[in-house]
Amino acid sequence: MNNFSYTQASTAKEATGIRKDQPAAAYIAGGTTLLDLMKANLEEHPQLVDINMLPFKGIEQTKDGLRIGAMERMSDVGEHPLVKEQFPAVSESLLLAASPQLRNMASIGGNILQRTRCGYFRDAAFPCNKRVPGSGCPALQGDNHNLAILGTSESCIATAYPGDLSVALAALDAVLTLENAKGKQRRVPVTEFYLLPGNTPQKETVLEPGELIVSVLIPATAHARRSTYLKVRERASYAYALASAAVGLEVQGGTIRSARVALGGVGTTPWRSPEAEKALVGQPATEATFRAAAAAALRGAQPREHNGFKVELAQNTLVQALLKVA
């Protein structure tokens, strides 16, 4: 781990100004991902900017939906009565993640920005296009049983976002508010925030240098209230998803009026599936409909040698999630 200086920022302008002057600096809140990467010498930052004092807090209902400050902790959001009642998929995605100790430390903004758990990325002894562009992707022919089958490229097949929350946020049309060094804010849907690897897998999000995530806004809708998050993993706790599904349905008279579907653990980004949603809307809320939607969601899958099982696993996970909310 390299030596670094430490600064506690009291305002967003101060924090973004430091990053503007020192582009290699990094923001730190809970540090549950960043410190791991620094200890493994996968990231080196001459300066850490503590942003815990920034006023990006609050879990509140607005006229547009639910607003969550980026500095809120995962455990506080997951346990909040408003989140549990009106946005159950969000609550469940948070409470199924990590461990209680990590949930108490990790911020919402940090969770959204956590990096891949691909073993080749996490081991500096191997080449990796995410770490060193153009060096290669050994996962293509190596151990890929935990990696992506949707949105992959010949440059990278990592599940770039390995977590749970952003899968639920993608399903429920959440929007991020970002702020730059000039104090200017912009809003980006979660479905547009993460980038496919293509030929530039080192670029994982649309976040510009120095920008901060300020908050998350989740629209209040009928399918958000009738939503769930289902996670399948290799052990019962403290494990990343092999496959997961965040779904929301609005059902009237046995017919699906609106549907939202996103998959985790199988895509290079939190994977929203318009194909599955199209197969659901206007159809009866039956297992046959759900299986047709699951087939549509995985139709474009490109499994490798060790992760072909994820196609059926993701389909079954999606069907079970839909059955739960229906």
Automatic annotation (TrEMBL):
- Pfam families the UniProt entry points to: CO_deh_flav_C, FAD_binding_5
User: What residues does the FAD-binding PCMH-type domain cover?
Assistant: 1-223
Single annotated GO MF: oxidoreductase activity
Q: Which InterPro entries match?
A: CO_DH_flav_C (IPR005107), CO_DH_flav_C_dom_sf (IPR036683), Diverse_Substr_Oxidored (IPR051312), FAD-bd_PCMH (IPR016166), FAD-bd_PCMH-like_sf (IPR036318), FAD-bd_PCMH_sub1 (IPR016167), FAD-bd_PCMH_sub2 (IPR016169), Mopterin_DH_FAD-bd (IPR002346)
Q: What are the UniProt keywords, alphabetically?
A: FAD, Flavoprotein
Name this protein carries in UniProt: Xanthine dehydrogenase family protein subunit M
